[in-house]
Amino acid sequence: MKAVLAICDGLGGRPTDHDGQTCLQAADTPNLDELAERGVSGLLDPVGPGVRPGSDTSHLSIFGYDPNEFYTGRGVFEAFGIGMDVERGDVCFRTNFATVDDDLVIQDRRAGRIGEGQDELEEALQELESPEDGVEVDFKASTEHRGALVLKGDDLSGRLSDVDPHETGVKAPEAEAMDGSESANRTADIVNNLVRQSHSIMEDLSLNERRREEGKPPANIILPRGAATYPNIPSIEERYGIDGVMVGAGALYIGVARALGLEFRKAKGVTGGADSPIINKAKKAVEELENGEDFVFVHMKGADSCAHDHDDECKIRYLEKVDDVIGYFLENLDWDESHLALTGDHTTPIAYGDHTSDPVPLTINGPNIIGDDLEEYSEKAAQKGGMGRFSGDVVPVLFGFSNWLEKFGE
Amino acid sequence: MKAVLAICDGLGGRPTDHDGQTCLQAADTPNLDELAERGVSGLLDPVGPGVRPGSDTSHLSIFGYDPNEFYTGRGVFEAFGIGMDVERGDVCFRTNFATVDDDLVIQDRRAGRIGEGQDELEEALQELESPEDGVEVDFKASTEHRGALVLKGDDLSGRLSDVDPHETGVKAPEAEAMDGSESANRTADIVNNLVRQSHSIMEDLSLNERRREEGKPPANIILPRGAATYPNIPSIEERYGIDGVMVGAGALYIGVARALGLEFRKAKGVTGGADSPIINKAKKAVEELENGEDFVFVHMKGADSCAHDHDDECKIRYLEKVDDVIGYFLENLDWDESHLALTGDHTTPIAYGDHTSDPVPLTINGPNIIGDDLEEYSEKAAQKGGMGRFSGDVVPVLFGFSNWLEKFGE
After folding, report:
1. What is the CA radius of gyration of chain A?
2. Longest Cα pair distance anywhere in chain A, in angstroms?
3. Of A252, A247, A254, nearest to A277 (Cα)?
4. Which of A107, A252, A286, A345 is deepest in the core (most CB within 10 A)?
5. A52 vs B contacts (CB less than 8 Å)
6. Each residue's pLDDT tens digit, A205-229
7. Chain-chain contact of A380 with B370 (C-beta, under 8 angstroms)
8. Using the 8-state DSSP alphabet, how is residue A362 labeled?
9. Contact B96, B166 (CB under 8 A)
10. What residue in B sits closest to A389 (Cα-Cα)?
């Protein structure tokens, strides 16, 4: 058996999206409809009814990991997502390169969305050193102002407030222990020391001298936020006995997949943007299955980004590209031996422009499902789907159809 | 956005109710049907499938508070419901005015459902004093034999057995620590002392001399039961960031609402009985929304009372009054900006005359829902509703459609 989980980020919508229809209803999606016709559908609450999911919590939940138990914060997934080595107990942060004045008052939270010098900054910041013995510091730059900081050592805590104040004109705050514990106080002291070090290291870099000459804000400090301890979370292989790979582009989603033990595989030319050639993800996924992988998780980001920008036409066009992706799977998977689940990680309506708690459609195809009578893939059609409504756990349901689950009890 | 939660207590029924139909099916309810036609419906398990809810636990669950975590006992809500000031850690009891002989053997658990002298009794009982320093005693009479007792102090416990034996001819039992803890033993000693004090205080009141002359049972003791510590429960505003008010009449429901931080607003002439002019609750609710409130919880009690009395005609007539309430909302809410959810807190079938675990219909109207194809509001129609079936959490689902929820994760 083979299994594919295809997630269209921000898939669901509302009647306010486009002329009284959701974008999914408005889009021309013959392949999605064929998927619904061949398969069994239902409504999915990514985390639960009345829970408004983040992308991180919803993915954990869809993979069968209760985020109330396993979610510690976004930093972990960002660090994994940009390829850092993270181990159980490490404390991870997302960081921004930012601009501060001599009193550490924030001038620009993103150093002018700096588009250069990431390598120079990353190399310089290898000098960061913990003020306390036995704690290892790792820093990696990502795109633009983004990066991640990882602390490795015994008894560190991720229960820390952000150093990023999310506004300008105020002094960069110090990280503080959110639970008053000794380990959080200790970790806060280390982080605050590293932030001051980063300012000393970065202030006079040649990159910044040049930027000042050009009238651009220097990248002269790192602001860590989203502190999170990598929890004792079993990998997908440990939990279900099945290994697999992830085909996607967004760092967060790559990060969630890597945190759960899936290896990242890059498809040709994909970007994570709405204009990404996502058909190549379908091709890559089929190639991975043909090369022996059992399970591929395909993540498609664009619909969510379009909806965050309140752009219905953009979301409709992207959903039509998702339709092409599904068309490729319909033609190229070995349907005697494969199951595919298509769903979203949450609804992102055009008017609201952010995630909502509304459920999303879910359809599964494959030889072991019992089909229903739907002929359309949409939020409304899925209300009548044969799977009814349930919360999270799409991967265990998919793996169940694939005959891969361990018995609970005897 | 604005949101209304309308709860018809004991809404659901069974085919044994009335000529092979539920009361809801038998009642003439054109407005409820229009609500279903405009909206999206589903089946709600107030607490969970196969859980037979009390009114207190079901309301907590519907508001998104897991009663397994937050329910400590009914006393808290009774005390809140009659307007007492209760704070975290206080121990609350429901009390009966009762009749005992000189050996404290119970003659009448409700002192003949005493219909007079509540003020005199309440005033006399202000003399109650804790035998232990640092514990404050508060007593308030309600209607007929009902009242509430609140103990305020450090390290008190609500894990106490009832002083009320729920039968006559036996001696009033002493409160006992249900968990053997020191704080429960201490609190039990205080309560038992207060019960003896109440007998001394009440025995010779002029009210009771008169009642004895009239051949009526004297109200000469209080019997506390339903001990409960007010738990560390976040208010609706703390939990969801939205404040609101409650329009209702029954003390328990007012109590639940106040315990969750909703202010009580009285509608003209309402009584909590089956003959209450509940249309005035709809008018009051719309008035509160127009005056700037974001959220109104409207509670309608009568259908449940009729069903407890095994009176199908009474329940059918009351449901037709609920239909008028919904008709008023359909006409008078600003439907571009409002969502309304109508459901019950449990089923109360006519033959059984008490709460059952059967699910209840739920319908939500408003601009952000995706409608289904129903044309009727009933238990049977709701089986085909577009929301499927879920447990509790109606308020977070309603607030989700209103774009009011905080994101869980990022």
Report:
1. 22
2. 72
3. A247
4. A345
5. 400, 405-408
6. 999 999 999 999 999 999 999 999 9
7. yes
8. E
9. no
10. B388
Residue ranges of B 195-214 with Cβ closer than 8 A to chain A = none
Give the H/E segment covering residue B44: strand B40-45
The answer to whether residue A376 neighbours chain B at the CB level (below 8 Å) is no
Of A50, A380, A383, the CB nearest to B397: A50
Q: pLDDT tens digits for chain B (410 residues)?
A: 999 999 999 999 999 999 999 999 999 999 999 999 999 999 999 999 999 999 999 999 999 999 999 999 999 999 999 999 999 999 999 999 999 999 999 999 999 989 899 999 999 999 999 999 999 999 999 988 999 999 999 999 999 999 999 999 999 999 999 999 999 999 999 999 999 999 999 999 999 999 999 999 999 999 999 999 998 899 999 999 999 999 999 899 999 999 999 999 999 999 888 899 999 999 999 999 999 999 999 999 999 999 999 999 999 999 999 999 999 999 999 999 999 999 999 999 999 999 999 999 999 999 999 999 999 999 999 999 999 999 999 999 999 999 999 999 98
Cα distance between residue B109 and residue B209, in whole Å: 19
Chain B residues lying within 8 Å of A26, measured CB to CB: none
A-B CB pairs within 8 A amount to 93
Q: Hey, which residues 50-69 in chain B have their CB within 8 Å of chain A?
A: 64
Cβ separation A389–B393 shorter than 8 A: no
Q: Is the CB of residue B17 less than 8 Å from the CB of residue B351?
A: yes
Helix, strand, or coil here: A401? helix
Helix residue ranges per DSSP H, A204-271: 206-213, 236-240, 251-259
| Contact with chain A for residue B396, Cβ under 8 A | yes
One-letter amino acid for residue B73 of the chain: G
Please answer whether residues B86 and B80 qualify as being in contact, where contact means their C-beta atoms are separated by less than 8 angstroms: yes
* Tokens 């034996």, located at residue: B165
Neighboring chain B residues of A226 at a CB cutoff of 8 Å? 410
Question: Does B48 contact chain A (CB < 8 Å)?
Answer: no
Cβ density class A355-365: b for 16+ within 10 Å, e for less: bbbbbbbbbbb
Q: What is the CATH number of domain B2-71+233-401?
A: 3.40.720.10
CATH 3.40.720.10 domain extents, chain A = 2-71+233-401
Q: What's the whole-model pTM score?
A: 0.93
Mean pLDDT, all residues of chain B: 96
State the pLDDT at residue A272. 85
Measured between CA atoms, the residue of chain B closest to residue A379 is B370
Residues in chain B: 410
Complex-level ipTM: 0.92
